[in-house]
Amino acid sequence: MEKTWRWFGKKDKISLSMLRQIGVEGIVTALHEVPNGEIWTYESVMDLKKYIEEAGLRWSVVESLPVSESIKYAGKDRDRLIENYIVSLENLGKAGVKTICYNFMPVLDWARTDLDHHWADGTSSLYFDRIEFAYFEIKILKRKGAENDYTADDLRKVEEMDKTMTAEGRHRLVENIIVKTQGFVNGNISEDEKKPVEVFRHLLSLYDGVGRDELRENMRYFLNAIMPVCDKYDINMCVHPDDPPRQLLGLPRIVTCGEDIRWFLDAVDNPHNGLTFCAGSLSAGAQNDVPALARQFASRTHFVHLRSTNVLPNGDFIEATHLGGRAHIIELVRIFEKERPNVPMRVDHARLMLGDERRGYNAGYSFHGRMLALGEVEGIMATVDDELGIKKEYK
Question: For the chain, does the N or the C end have fewer beta carbons within 10 angstroms?
């Protein structure tokens, strides 16, 4: 697998020279300054591509060319937005950037309640607390019908939490769930939004009447529209699984398990319609056997995210180390090194450590934590390659 790294552009506090020194080969990035739905020009794509190549690296994967909400819920302007998307894809194809990671999650593309969950060794990681999320939905967002998605015991715990919840605690949940995890990745809510809860309520309302079947058909419509330009330029589209892979906020989620993945691959049966195999997202669903999914879908996997989680008995989940958790990364490396040896891979959502917390890195995207994870994964890769008789030069 190609060792890649999620990099947030020229303003990223982690420089390309730092990445080259730790063995990164390819860069995963996007034109983050371009608003969702607007065209990525050929000139802008080439400017960033040249900047990356001058640092001795290559632009391996676009993550992400965002799919506008109106495309997902089939708004009146979806055809215009799809046309813009096609032009952007054409410009990327002309520039030779041909792997595109995207998602089809309504409104919220990843959810955590705690961005700084402390471990005994002094590191910290991301965490999803079911009851805190329920509290956000019921007491802060006040989503109509939210109570119906939780058990009586869950609701009792929410009421107990409400007795001690402070204004600071409520603010923290809003920041963690709908601001800090979204604003730095072309999300729907910017980090300087003054009324994020009101904006979020409006975004949810746009999906009134859109259920699982409707969202699936909207995804099919989008993929059918873009496949001709993908065929022309040999562009691989790879959808990211839902994170977490469960229903949230009364919205449909349609990439949560093997049956979901098989549906969208069969719905548009084109080799350019593929999967981002995010081991962390998939492992956060207790229903998923992650190595089995990797074996089943390796041939249609165009990009791999290696991270892992542990799902707790109460339904919470926490980011695990890259050597532990439910994802079984050692086995995943065996599968992909054999079946997809040149596929781009990046480590993901590592812990904050060794002063990362003071450097202002984006949530989940520390330097030292990901450097440790990359070293662990590279060691796994070298061992697996030796098992398979694959000769590689590790620099």
Answer: C
